[in-house]
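Run log // design_07
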């Protein structure tokens, strides 16, 4: 049964101290659906269309692993996360980031504030019934013409998800509710995004680039 948002927040509060160390080993045979984690972040960061001076918001920033890969490109980084402990860990690693408690359905920034919104391995924590509202919230904080880069554990079809669950076996977490590519693409369209481009970056990972109309 999927976790509630409160259970997810408590999980990441407990996990914050060892999160980066634990995910550093997500390329071995016991990695489960996170296998390829570092490579996925590398690919996604290379594809993010940013330029010096742009404002970037990372939703579900965690310890800042994705946003940190953009710092050398001269962007201003803000981040939100529902876990205060994760934000404390991020603040210790990246004191220049502007960080606030929040989540996909309640982003504590003004409408039209950001040139770019990014997110990695976090959207699946949003309960399915709240995902359209979450997509609309991502669009709200973007400037007209702004872009979204979202990376997560996702699957192209129910058959692909079922095959991954069978292959991963006991390492599969039944408390997770991973999105399907087509379902999320439709939600992004309904939320007003256009021009979505999808890429599979690892056996269980997909990224999407989409843009808010100018």
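design_07 sequence
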């Amino acid at each position: 049964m999927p976790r509630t948002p409160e259970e997810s927040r408590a999980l990441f509060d407990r996990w914050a101290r060892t999160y980066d160390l634990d995910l550093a080993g997500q390329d071995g045979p016991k990695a489960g659906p996170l296998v390829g984690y570092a490579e996925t972040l590398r690919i996604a960061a290379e594809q993010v269309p940013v330029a010096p001076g742009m404002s970037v918001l990372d939703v579900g920033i965690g310890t800042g692993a994705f946003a940190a890969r953009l710092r050398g490109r001269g962007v201003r980084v803000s981040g939100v996360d529902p876990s205060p402990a994760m934000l404390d860990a991020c603040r210790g690693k990246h004191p220049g980031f502007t960080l606030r408690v929040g989540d996909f359905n309640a982003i504590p920034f003004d409408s039209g504030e950001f040139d770019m919104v990014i997110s990695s391995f976090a959207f699946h924590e949003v309960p399915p019934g709240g995902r359209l509202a979450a997509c609309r919230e991502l669009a709200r904080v973007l400037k007209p013409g702004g872009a979204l880069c979202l990376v997560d554990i996702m699957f192209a079809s129910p058959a692909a998800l079922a095959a991954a669950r069978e292959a991963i076996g006991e390492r599969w977490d039944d408390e997770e509710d991973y999105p399907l590519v087509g379902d999320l693409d439709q939600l992004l369209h309904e939320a007003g995004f256009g021009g979505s481009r999808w890429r599979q970056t690892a056996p269980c990972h997909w990224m999407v680039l989409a843009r808010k109309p100018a």
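The two ends are 40 Å apart (CA to CA).
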